[in-house]
Amino acid sequence: MSTKTWNGLPFTGLTEDFDPQWLLTPEQQALQAKLIELCAAVLRPNAIASDRNLIYPRKNFEALASLNLLSLFVPKEWGGLGENHVCAAMVVETIARYGCPSTAMCYTMHLGAVAAALFRAHDSPELQSLLKRLDSEVLIGTLSYSDPETGSHFWYPVSSKATATPDGWQVNKKASWTTSAGFADWYIVQTTSPHFDGNFSDLSCFLIYADEVQAEPHKWDALGLRGNQSGTLLVDGVTVPRDRMVGPEGDGTASNDEIVDPFFLLCSSACWNGIALGAIDIAKAHVTRKKHVDVGMRVADYPTIQDYFGEAIMDTSACRMFTFSMGQLMDQLTNSCDWAIHADTSALPRAAHLHWYWQIKFEAAKNVAHVCDKMLHACGGSGFKKDMEIERYLRDGKAGWVMGPTNEVLRQFVGKSALLGFDSLDYWNQSVNERVLHNELKKLDPDEKRKLAESLLADLAEAEKPAPPIPVAAA
Ligand SMILES: Cc1cc2nc3c(=O)[nH]c(=O)nc-3n(C[C@H](O)[C@H](O)[C@H](O)COP(=O)(O)OP(=O)(O)OC[C@H]3O[C@@H](n4cnc5c(N)ncnc54)[C@H](O)[C@@H]3O)c2cc1C
């Protein structure tokens, strides 16, 4: 017997018999019930308008702030809910499923930015002040990483840099994609470090406010997640005070491995799972109502349709359990998301499990596209029309595969690291593949080898030239 309701009426989607409620505490279950009500009343109607008219879902964020969800895992003593990773996955999944997938993705990026700030907030009055005002002032955060020159290799910001100034830092960030660009109130951006010497693993993070960025939201028009507004972002040589560096100089890699990747991969997986469930809910409501008078059956009475649902539910349950189990692991590793453990800046417990987060995102993003497709098939031509909303879920779910780390990259990371070891991943293109090198050299004839050797020696001579002396007057 279902207890789920939708605007005061019985819910017509999957009953909670198919929800792993045992993973949630009683408080988290109560929060979920309130959130479902909010989705029915506010987020879902806004989702339709947001998709049709490319509207950024700020109103949905205001609604989420009314449940204190912008500070979901901010410690209670700073005014937050003090919740954990499992709860974050539940909230994102619930928003995507019952409310608005675009909002769920903007919220995923917000949580990633909040986590990056909490990670290094211990000695930072600036970050603490921001984190204490998230709900009361509806301060939306986001992550700006992807670089126009390196595509989905978002950990490689070749077009961005920071330099030290007497009072702080001059930040140049050029991003090809940033969820909520031009709508967020604050941004965590990543650039090479101020003392960068050519090593692209030397990265730093900065807190940048809305009035310091240039965005182009008018250019955003996409297949799905249309409210997400993931446009370009430019921080054009803006000078910020010293305390706007998030964490110590060179902390970017640690922040990526410990926070940005684990939180993005956990929450975005929950988003894809929520979209798959949302499509199943819509399709269930349709197939159990629609009748074929000639044979006296509802669409749901055909075994073919039952098989579609059986497989979609089981595949999605597998993805949900996998995602929640990573949330549980993160909770175990961090004393249920206790940010105090990071007072020791070398504490990086989540980072050791990065290859598991890759797997949950790959599976959830693969599943959502398949499930939405099958649910649309189950609904026939009716599913093809906009008013049923299933086509929107299908379009929204398509973002899963292409969002970085893309599923092509993840599959490669997991397979390559399993076969050749983690060092073989070589994120920053630093280690030489001797096998490829020698194999290519084998193809050269003696003349070609000589030419190559001469050009290499000339390069070396150029690189080893002593620097010209600095004129005394300029020194
Ligand atoms: C809705 C949405 C929201 C986003 N929000 C944000 C955000 O908030 N912040 C942010 O920083 N970024 C964001 N992004 C950007 C995202 O993370 C990727 O950087 C972006 O989708 C990459 O697009 P691209 O055209 O550059 O792809 P490319 O990187 O050019 O990829 C093209 C193809 O090459 C494949 N490929 C790339 N590298 C490899 C490889 N090493 N091995 C095998 N195949 C490879 C890809 O998988 C893909 O099939 C968002 C993207 C979307 C779609």
**Which ligands, by name, code or SMILES, are bound?**
flavin-adenine dinucleotide
Biggest sheet layout:
4 strands, mixed
Shape: globular
Gyration radius (Cα, Å) is 25 Å
Count of runs of 4 or more consecutive helical residues: 14
Beta strand %: 5-15%
In total, the number of strands is 12
Low-confidence stretches: none
- Strands across the major sheet, in which order? 3-6-7-10
How much helicity do the residues have? 40-55%
Q: Please tell me the overall pLDDT.
A: 96
- Helix/strand-derived category reads alpha+beta
- Cα distance spanning the termini: 82 Å
Query: What is the succession of H and E elements?
Result: EEHHHHHEEEEEEEEHEEHHHHHHHH
Overall description:
Helix content is 48%, strand content 12%. It is built from 14 helices and twelve strands. The strands form four sheets. Strands 3-6-7-10 form a four-stranded mixed sheet. A four-stranded antiparallel sheet has the order 4-5-9-8, with no helix packed on it. It has a two-stranded antiparallel ribbon with strand order 1-2. A hairpin with a 3-residue loop joins strand 4 (161-164) and strand 5. The model has no long low-confidence stretch (mean pLDDT 96). The structure holds flavin-adenine dinucleotide.
SSE arrangement:
Layout: E1 5-6, E2 9-10, H1 26-53, H2 58-66, H3 85-99, H4 101-119, H5 125-132, E3 141-144, E4 161-164, E5 168-178, E6 186-192, E7 203-209, E8 214-215, E9 231-241, E10 245-246, H6 252-287, E11 291-292, E12 297-298, H7 303-333, H8 354-379, H9 381-384, H10 390-397, H11 399-402, H12 407-420, H13 434-442, H14 446-464
Parallel strand pairs: 3-6
Antiparallel strand pairs: 1-2, 4-5, 5-9, 6-7, 7-10, 8-9, 11-12
Helix pairs in contact: 1-2, 1-3, 3-4, 3-6, 3-7, 4-6, 6-7, 6-8, 6-10, 7-8, 8-10, 8-12
The structure holds flavin-adenine dinucleotide (FAD).
The site of flavin-adenine dinucleotide (FAD) has 24 residues, from strand 3, strand 5, helix 11 and helix 12.
